[in-house]
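Each record in this resource describes a single protein on a pair of labelled lines. An example record follows, reproduced without changes.
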Amino acid sequence: MKNNISKQQLDELERRIGYKFDSPQHLGRALTHASATKHNVDGQQYERLEFLGDRVLGLVVSELLFETFPDAAEGELSLRLNALVNGKTCALIADQISLHEFIRAGADLKHLTSKRMQGVRADVVEAVIAAVYLDGGLSEASKVVRKLWGDRLFLADAARRDSKTALQEWAHSNKCSTPTYELVNQQGPDHDPVFTVKVILENHEGCEGKGRSKRSAEQNAARIILEREGIWDAEEKQST
C-alpha cells in the first residue's frame, strides 16, 4: 500500500494543524495504521513515527511549561507535563482537528471515533507531529504543538497528581508498604489490547483496573482505591 495523501486531504489537514508540507510522504505514513497494510512493515505504518513524535511532543511541551510557569517547582512541571502528553489529551487533540477523517485503517478496525479507539487517535497525532518534525525541523514542529496544545496549559487537570503517585504517598503516610501491581489478564488483538491489572495494598482489599496499556490499567486500579477510600472524590478521577 502506498502512503500517498490526496491534494485535497493534504490541504485540509495542513490548514487544521497550521503547517504546509514540502514533502508529504511522511504524513501519509503517519496516517496509516498497521491494519491497513498488506504486510506489517514498519516503513508502511505509523508506529516508528509515533515513537519519535512522542519525544518531540514531550520536549516542546516541557519547554512551553518552563516558559509559562517560571515559578513552578519541578514536581508541578512534571505533573503538568504528564497530563498534557498522556493518551487522553493526545486523543482530545486528535478529536479537536477531526484527525480520524484522515486515518487509514483496515476493515477490521472500525469506529475510529469510539472511546475504544482513543489510543489509535492519540498515536496518530504523535505520528503527525513526527512527520512535521522530519519535514520542517524542530522549529516547525514546535509551532504545531504550541498551536494545538497552547489552550490546555492552564486546565486544572494539568496540575493534578497522577493516581499511582497519590496512592503511594497516601500508603506511606498511613504506614503501609508501597502498593504493588500485578497483571491479571490481557485480551484483544495485538493492535488494540485491553489489560487488567490488580493493585495490592497492605491491609486493604485489592482493586482491579483496565486500560489499553499496563500503565493505564495500573493508574485506573489506583484511582479506584483512592475513590473507594474517600481520598479522592469520584469527579477527581484522571484518565491516563
